Amino acid sequence: MLIGSTSRSQSNSDRHRRVRVTTMANPMPLSVPFMFFGICFGLWTALGVSAQQFVPASCNASLGFQWADNSLGQDPCQIATFLGQVCDSNYRIPAINSSESYFGPTPAQNNSCLCSSVEYILLSACGACQGGTYRTWTGYNQNCSTVYPMM
Fold first, then answer.
1. What's the superkingdom here (predicted)?
2. I want to staple 111 with a disulfide (CB 3.0 to 4.6 A). Which of 11, 43, 87, 96 is the partner?
């Protein structure tokens, strides 16, 4: 890093403004940060880590699940997201493919929103309308300390 400071010469023959440039002691060569970045990126890539962007779940219109949309035109995936966000504002439901399903809440997500049969039904419909599968109610709620079944 370069730091500039000014000084005035006191000699009669030199009345020009001089700029004295000083440097930090032992500056890091520019190549070191680039080498570090290259090593980290190489390891990141070799380990299969990717920076995938989050894709929210939404129903595939060609599968014929429009009957499951509410009166506002929201599909089961959107409604399930809204229900989960009542208890956790950061709750999101990722899109799945035909060989995947939603496993239910983790122990850290053990709350009345996600441990309800309403969320289970919405997530099951969300999985099905994407062409995926769904789990049984007992498989879904295995991490819930209290379940809120249908009445």
1. Eukaryota
2. 87
- 24-42 pLDDT tens trace: 455 555 555 545 545 544 4
∠ CA(59), CA(61), CA(62), 5° rounding? Answer: 125
| 119 touches 83 (CB < 8 A) | yes
* pLDDT one-digit tens code per residue, 86-121: 999 999 999 999 999 999 999 999 999 999 999 999
Read off φ and ψ for residue 94, nearest 5 degrees: -80, 155
In which element (H, E) is residue 80 found?
helix 76-87
Enter the pTM of the model: 0.64
What residues have CB less than 8 Å from 122, skipping those under 6 apart? 76, 77, 79, 80, 83
